[in-house]
Amino acid sequence: MEENTQSLSRSIGDLFSSFRRNRSESETPSIELSEKKPLIIGISDIDHTLVFTNENDINDEEIGALLQYNITRLLLATDMSFTDDEMRLRLSLETHLKKRKIELLGIISTSDYAWHLPTDVLKKFYDLCHTSEFNIDFKLKKNLDKLTLALEQKEFAPIKELMKGNATNQAEPGTAYSLAKQQFGKDERSYQYLKERAIHAKWVVDTICSLSEIPRPGLKGLILRPLFTNPRWTENRTFVYFDDKEKEVEDATIEINALNIRASAFLSPLKKEPTRTKEYYIECIETHCKKYGVTKNPSPKESFVSRRRANSSAESAPSSASRTPSSLSSHSSSDDIVSMTGEKPAEKRTLKLRMSSTSTK
After folding, report:
1. pTM of the predicted model as reported, rounded to 2 decimal places
2. CA dihedral (1, 202, 190, 15) positive or negative
3. d(CA 96, CA 169)
4. % pLDDT > 90, the chain
5. What gap in Å lies between CA 235 and CA 38, rounded to an integer?
6. How does DSSP classify residue 230?
7. Spatial separation of the C-alpha atoms in residues 41 and 339, rounded to whole Å
8. Which helix (H) or strand (E) holds 279?
9. CA–CA dist 50, 268 (Å, integer)
10. CA distance 204 to 115
11. CA 280 – CA 264 distance, rounded (Å)
């Protein structure tokens, strides 16, 4: 049994290595604008925000408002346990967004924040918290006072460091879902291993939200932190974020203000509420644009014209040997849109990629 587990662990390790290699080799679209205008990126919660009861009950009011502002690049932030139903719903949502011409940059899950921690640390901490001695339950808010005692063991030092905000080599946002998606419906054994690892990582994140020494330990604010603290994502970009939970909106807003990120968090009304209209979402986006002095994103046609102008300028420019260092780096990282799905675009476009390595042990 132990030999089988070790064999599976090695195969998953190969999967992680392959994932990192595919990430570094895959092509992702970039946008080139001569004006270098800030690009608006959409962020949305999934359950009861972008999707209500099932995959056929999608919030097209929110999608329509995003498209009206040419916000065609979207990140999803979700608290999920990687059940089969959750995976099927998210895969179906991906298909719907693709039909609406929205590029899904990735699905950030709760597990991502602790995904870089060693597998054995995640599992041992989860198992310890579920022994009869501790019997901790977040949903029932049972024995949460014992979490500190559980963390006293020396082997859980990496978790305590993460609680202090001392995260090093953290996983790229969206890693857990991307890996699970590769195996879901294909390799059940590997998928179950990843699912278990995701549950253990989520348990650590829930622990951090309960005991964190960092101020502002709200869940969505916490899992968006690696995104908001990465200049590769934030440079020359603004973010508009929707969530159905008022507390998550408040926590995300506190995080945004603390990090001085050009982002806005808005409450997404429930389906039954009369305020849930396309006009409501448009008003929210307008508020965001006025606050940060940005205009709506260029249309795909405008982007194409900008690229043609850039190409024409490049053809008429001096050879690379006579260019200044600044002209060589004129296409800065702020022009790169990094996709976390690991999928190559169907059509040929100007492509760039800057990805950091993902630590998975």
Report:
1. 0.76
2. negative
3. 33
4. 53
5. 8
6. -
7. 12
8. helix 278-292
9. 9
10. 10
11. 15
Least Cα distance to 267 among 290, 283, 285, 246 occurs for 246
Mean pLDDT value of segment 303-310: 48
The SS3 of residue 299 is coil
**What stretches of 293-353 show up as alpha helix (H) in DSSP?**
300-316, 325-328
Burial (Cβ within 10 Å: 0-12, 13-18, ≥19) of residue 39: buried
Return the pLDDT at 222. 86
pLDDT digits (tens, 9 = 90+) for 263-294: 999 999 999 999 999 999 999 999 999 999 99
Nearest-CA neighbor of 12 among 279, 198, 142? 198
Q: Which residues contact 180 (CB under 8 A, 6 or more apart)?
A: 82, 87, 191, 194, 195, 198
**Residue 160 corresponds to which tokens in the numbers above?**
């305590």
Residues 6+ apart with CB under 8 A from 203: 122, 125, 126, 129
Distance, CA of 11 to chain centre: 25
User: Is the dihedral angle over the CA atoms 219, 224, 226, 229 positive or is it negative?
Assistant: negative
What does the alpha-carbon distance between residue 242 and residue 248 come to, in Å, rounded to a whole number?
Answer: 10
Tokens of 175: 């890693």
- Determine the Cα–Cα distance for residues 40 and 281; give it in Å rounded to an integer: 14
Per-residue pLDDT averaged across 211-230, rounded? Answer: 78
> Is the Cα torsion angle 40, 330, 170, 103 positive or negative in sign?
positive
Is residue 296 a contact partner of residue 40, using CB atoms and an 8 Å limit? yes
